[in-house]
Amino acid sequence: MSSFAIVGSGFRSSIYWEVAAGLAGVDCVGVVTRRPRALPVPAYDSVGALLRDHKVDFVVTSTTPAVTPHLIAESVGRGLPVLTETPPAWSADEIVDLWHTVGAAQLVQVAEQYHLMPLHAARLAAVRAGAVGRVGQVHVSSTQLYHAVSLLRRFLGVGLEGATIRAGRFAAPLVNPLDRGGWTGDLEPHDATTTLATLDFGAGRSGVYDFTDNQTRNLLRTRRLLVRGSHGELSDETVVHLVDATTITRTTFSRRQTGHDLDLNGYATDHIALGDQVYWRNAWPHARWTDDELAIAALLTRMAAWVDGEGPEPYPLVEGCTDQLLALAITEAAETGRAVRVEPATVLA
């Protein structure tokens, strides 16, 4: 059994103790919070106070970027592995300072969950299996900045390579029926900004970032993914593939969802397949979790395995830092109208 503590009790914190409660091998022993209140796990006012009561295998920092780097450094200073919420730091200077402070310790992982969500995980597995050949371009329109950059890099197979980024912003009226707090009740259109950016990684690899304000929660805007390769392309849930000199196939990802109609085998996403090939299978079919919760379950499980020396790093700090450096360059390019060149390997040297 691996145990962990959460530092912070904000918007994202609860998902960790809620998911941990359904995992057999991971236990949340407490939360460090500045706002004492009733929680389903023990609350403490400092990391030191929590550690006097519990021995933990790692900590999760779920705090604002303004304080996260300090908390990461404090935990690493205690010899504790850290799983930090995104982004690990905000500005480029803070990213560099954090990397130089804790990077060498190799104790920090980033809670980047999007590539672990069931459909993304299935699509990524299919692409890596050669479903579209060699990938040259990826277009992501679903989530903001560092999350989208992570998906772009994963599908392109890009590491710390540099990129030239160009971007622009465009405003148009949009009704915003849902936000973080739920249904807004507001039926009036308000100007929403769309940021479009191109990321040129060289060697025939490029990405398109396309995001509209609140797109992750506004159901009037869909979430889209396009992966173009040498032998076909993946468009949302459809794969077009060149089989031989005269045959092109079109196959769609299918999600088996139990609990519908007369399928009485629980209520969960069971698996996601492309044709007869299963590319993602639910390891917790009885938990009735959302896609986001399933991704966090995968993160916590992988973090516990890595800390125990039984698995690879879930998402190393250098990856999260690279995502944020590229995200900052998108913002700079959109604000200035100029092309921005960023070299993560050089910045983090």
SSE layout:
Elements: E1 2-7, H1 13-20, E2 26-32, E3 43-44, H2 47-53, E4 58-61, H3 68-77, E5 82-84, H4 92-102, E6 108-110, H5 118-128, E7 135-141, H6 145-156, E8 163-174, E9 178-179, E10 182-183, E11 190-202, E12 205-212, E13 224-229, E14 232-235, E15 238-244, E16 247-257, E17 269-274, E18 277-281, H7 291-307, H8 317-336, E19 340-342, H9 344-347
Parallel strand pairs: 1-2, 1-4, 2-3, 4-5, 5-6, 7-12
Antiparallel strand pairs: 7-13, 8-11, 8-19, 9-10, 11-12, 13-14, 14-15, 15-16, 16-17, 17-18
Helix pairs in contact: 1-7, 3-4, 4-8, 6-8
CATH classification, class level of the largest domain: Alpha Beta
CATH architecture of the largest domain: 2-Layer Sandwich
Number of DSSP helices? 9
Tally of strands: 19
User: How are the strands of the largest sheet arranged?
Assistant: 18-17-16-15-14-13-7-12-11-8-19
Please state the structural category: alpha/beta
The total domain count is 2
Q: What is the average per-residue confidence, as pLDDT, rounded to a whole number?
A: 96
Question: Which sheet architecture does the biggest sheet show?
Answer: 11 strands, mixed
Rg, nearest Å: 21 Å
Shape: globular
CATH fold type of the largest domain: Dihydrodipicolinate Reductase, domain 2
H/E element order? EHEEHEHEHEHEHEEEEEEEEEEEHHEH
Proportion of beta-strand residues:
25-35%
